Amino acid sequence: MVSKKYFIIDFDSTFTQVEALDELARISLQDRADKEEIYKKIEDYTNQAMEGKLSFRESLAARVKLLEADKSHLKLLVKHLKTLVSTSFARNKNFFKQHANEVLIVSGGFKEFIAPVVLPYHIKSENIYANTFVFDKQGKIIGYDDTNPLSFEGGKVKLLKELKLPGEIHGIGDGYSDFQLKESGMIKKFYAFTENVERKSVTERADHITPSLDEVLFINKIPAAISYPKNRIVCLVAGENIPEASVKLLKKDGFSVKQVSELTKASIAEAGILLIGNKLTLTNELLSYATKLKVIGTAEGAGLPVELCTAHGVAIFESGKKPESLGKRIAKYINNGDTIKSINFPHLQLPSVNGHRFIHIHQNVPGVLAKVNQVFADNQLNITAQYLMTNSQIGYVITDISGQYDKQMLKTMKSIPHTIQLRFLY
């Protein structure tokens, strides 16, 4: 019998992009003349605790004392935090729905602001473990329940001992208190979550450094919103005159950005995305090593073997008028299959992915679409939408299906004569 997997997930800087108490301070202290000085103190206490330099209980008490917050401030905080759910968590809402019994939010933060943020993600209220505030009659925060195990140093370990979960436990978090779960021997694997912040004292001790929730799901073979973690797709930035705004956009979208001054066989071999400056040339020989390459973004004047790129199934986009436009076009192509403004692919503007999407790039010869559809028919899969455009070199067919599919089907589709490349998106 396969052991059930539980996922213990932190809230601050993990489920959300920020530290909630720091954000609460910016709301509650905004009219104070010395607010910047107090913000700095609160942030310092937060970081010292997260890095294991100060006990959590000391840090928590000091931060709560400095807040001067009340229930009206908490309402504003919740509204703010709902807009700051970590990107990879927001796009994997279906994972939380499908695994509602196995996902627990365990945080040294406070239930008053955590629950309203995570409940819309199908997290069960009984699976939210956090501290609670103490209020006076006017609704001002005057302290916290100091009997809660999560208010103590090592509180997450204490709580987990009490819960006695009957299965394999995986922890996801960014701080020292999350690593303590691994140190206690109570969890199988600890994932240092670095999408929002990377703490060296934590990543050095982690079983796995995970820049996104997609990475955790991929490792555990759990269906995710995207079929392959973006952090595993290398965006190689080579040469000059690549708009910095486009590079930042792709990095923010989750791709692993690496910058080089020149192209080599080794660097091009790992690239899924290539941004190439106007003083560099992509030779035929280098392209033969680019086995992972899906798309090229180019500054005007770069040397590219366009027809050969097309024959390899590599889409090309050029910089537009706005500095971020190149990054947006590439992100849409990788995330969605959209080819509008490509200089070598047929143009298709596609709706967002709903279900599973297959992108089949093939030589433009008769009969390929029929063979593609025969594969879906043989696997008794329902096609919910299909799009096809061609140019003189290639055919570009996108098929959306509902329901699950056998992975063997991918091999069958790749073996269709005249296939250049197959991509599949969840």
UniProtKB/TrEMBL annotation:
GO terms for biological process: L-serine biosynthetic process. GO terms for molecular function: L-phosphoserine phosphatase activity; magnesium ion binding. Residues 357-426 form the ACT domain. GO terms for cellular component: cytoplasm. Its cofactor is Mg(2+). Pathway: Amino-acid biosynthesis; L-serine biosynthesis; L-serine from 3-phospho-D-glycerate: step 3/3. It catalyses: O-phospho-D-serine + H2O = D-serine + phosphate; O-phospho-L-serine + H2O = L-serine + phosphate. Keywords: Amino-acid biosynthesis, Hydrolase, Magnesium, Metal-binding, Serine biosynthesis. InterPro entries: ACT-like_dom_sf, ACT_dom, AHAS_small-like_ACT, HAD-like_SerB, HAD-like_sf, HAD_sf. Its EC number is 3.1.3.3. The keyword DNA damage does not apply. NCBIfam families: HAD-SF-IB (TIGR01488). This is phosphoserine phosphatase. It comes from Chitinophaga silvatica. The lineage of its organism: Bacteria, Pseudomonadati, Bacteroidota, Chitinophagia, Chitinophagales.
